[in-house]
Automatic annotation (TrEMBL):
PROSITE patterns: ABC_TRANSPORTER_1, ABC_TRANSPORTER_2. This is Sn-glycerol-3-phosphate ABC transporter ATP-binding protein UgpC. SMART domains: AAA. It comes from Aminobacter carboxidus. The gene is ugpC. Residues 4-234 form the ABC transporter domain. It comes from the Bacteria.
Length: 427
């Protein structure tokens, strides 16, 4: 096994640069997911690791060896594609053993390796079948078997589950993860599906437009997305974004409904910021702000509600059944300990909670305007969650009872001046 090092890698097709300086470190035994919208360069990067695509500039290393000029066969990697690319005229066993035969391995060793892979993948009863006699999931397993028999240093997967139906995708997801836990082979897994990335990977690399936007553990990306793109991409349904301003340490939403005291300093002189709230961090709360229900989606285990709060569309996700109906007016409140703030111009996350944000690779592009915001938020120190919550509640006109903290009551609308000072509307 081996780690994979990708250093300032670029790729151009003619005048078009599709990878614009990518740095990724994949540790030995790690499962790394490359995720991003279609066309962002995931497959190109994977194919470059495999050696199927030349490198315009930069360096790719596998197991400490620079492989820029090493042909694919000598890289000791195995790739699994979305289109399983099985040989239709060969049985499952032959398909799995073919690369070993090409490599000149003796027949008994091939048989042994195929048998072991078939065992791991539960393919034993299918070894004599042709691909056309298999289901999609079984074909996918054969494709994986073909990779496993080679016992490579690195597995490369390119959207291996995209051709499967939703249910099978979920079970294959778990199978691949279990396989990784068992074999511990270093894995780079490409997907456009953030749920796949979140559930399978030790580390996620979010790409956009040939650049890495952020890399980190699934929960790091969920809890502290470094910009609005990552914030919107990770998590389903997507994060709600609400335009507003921060003046004198107080956030007020563009629609004037939501107010919140905060340590965060906006980058722009006019104080414009964007508030991010995940749907699962919004709840129906009699002490919250008014919103009109537009659409209610029930899955049985959860309820998704699309709302209009003062002209801003919001999605709320409840882990229980809500009986609300379209047209109804409800009150909703965010979990104030889980708000995100972003700079509207750069999209970058603004200071906040557990700081300090390590600059990601994309920071080398020169977005240093993050620094003053960070300093300010550190200088101001932290605010305890309890204090924050009461401040936050106060900001939207709710007061917590001093003697019975479980009780809240409305104070009526907040000061007019705040609502008036709001220029920006929601994006
Ligand atoms: N052989 C090629 N020639 C020219 N452009 C290409 C070639 N392969 C990929 N591209 C372009 O590179 C970009 C990234 O493609 P790709 O890596 O396949 O994206 P992803 O896998 O993230 O969907 C796309 O805009 C695609 O059109
Ligand atoms: Mg692709």
């Amino acid at each position: 096994m081996a780690g994979v090092t990708i250093e300032n890698v670029r790729k151009s097709y003619g005048a078009v640069e599709v990878l614009r300086g990518v740095d990724v470190q994949v540790e030995n035994s790690e499962f790394v997911a490359l995720v991003g919208p279609s066309g962002c360069g995931k497959s190109t990067l994977l194919r470059m690791i495999a050696g199927l695509e030349g490198i315009s500039s930069g360096e790719i290393g596998i197991g400490g060896r620079v492989v820029n000029n090493v042909p694919p066969k000598q890289r000791d990697v195995a790739m699994v594609f979305q289109s399983y690319a099985l040989y239709p005229h060969m049985t499952v066993a032959k398909n799995m053993g073919f690369s070993l035969k090409l490599a000149g391995l003796p027949a008994d060793e091939i048989a042994q390796r195929v048998s072991r892979a078939a065992e791991i993948l539960d393919l034993r009863p299918l070894l004599d079948r042709l691909p056309k006699q298999l289901s999609g999931g079984q074909r996918q397993r054969v494709a994986m078997g073909r990779a496993i028999v080679r016992d490579p240093q690195v597995f490369l997967f390119d959207e291996p589950l995209s051709n499967l139906d939703a249910k099978l995708r979920v079970s294959m997801r778990a199978e691949i993860k279990a396989l990784h836990q068992r074999l511990k082979t270093t894995t780079v897994y490409v997907t456009h599906d953030q749920v796949e990335a979140m559930t399978m990977a030790d580390k996620i690399v979010v790409m956009r437009d040939g650049l890495v936007e952020q890399q980190g553990s699934p929960l790091e990306l969920y809890d502290r997305p470094r910009n609005m793109f990552v914030a919107g991409f990770i998590g389903s349904p997507s994060m709600n974004f609400i335009g507003g301003t921060i003046k004198k340490r107080r956030f007020v939403s563009g629609n004037g409904l939501l107010g919140h005291d905060t340590d965060i300093s906006p980058m722009a002189g006019d104080g414009a910021v964007i508030l991010g709230v995940r749907p699962e961090h919004l709840s129906i709360d009699t002490s919250g702000i008014e919103a009109t229900v537009l659409v209610v989606e029930q899955t049985g285990s959860e309820t998704t509600v699309l709302l209009d709060a003062g002209g801003t569309r919001m999605t709320l996700l409840a882990r229980e059944r809500l009986t609300t109906v379209p047209g109804e007016t409800v009150r909703i409140a965010p979990d104030y300990s889980r708000l995100h703030f972003f700079d509207p111009a750069s999209g970058l996350r603004l200071g906040g909670d557990s700081d300090v944000d390590e600059p990601g690779p994309s920071d080398t592009k020169g977005n240093t305007s993050m620094a003053p915001a960070r300093r300010t938020s550190l200088k101001n120190g932290r605010t305890g969650p309890r204090k924050k919550l009461s401040q936050a509640l106060e900001a939207i006109g709710i007061r917590q009872d001093r003697y019975r903290p479980e009780l809240y009551y409305m104070r009526g609308p907040g000061p007019k001046t705040h609502a008036k000072s709001v220029g920006a509307d929601s994006p």
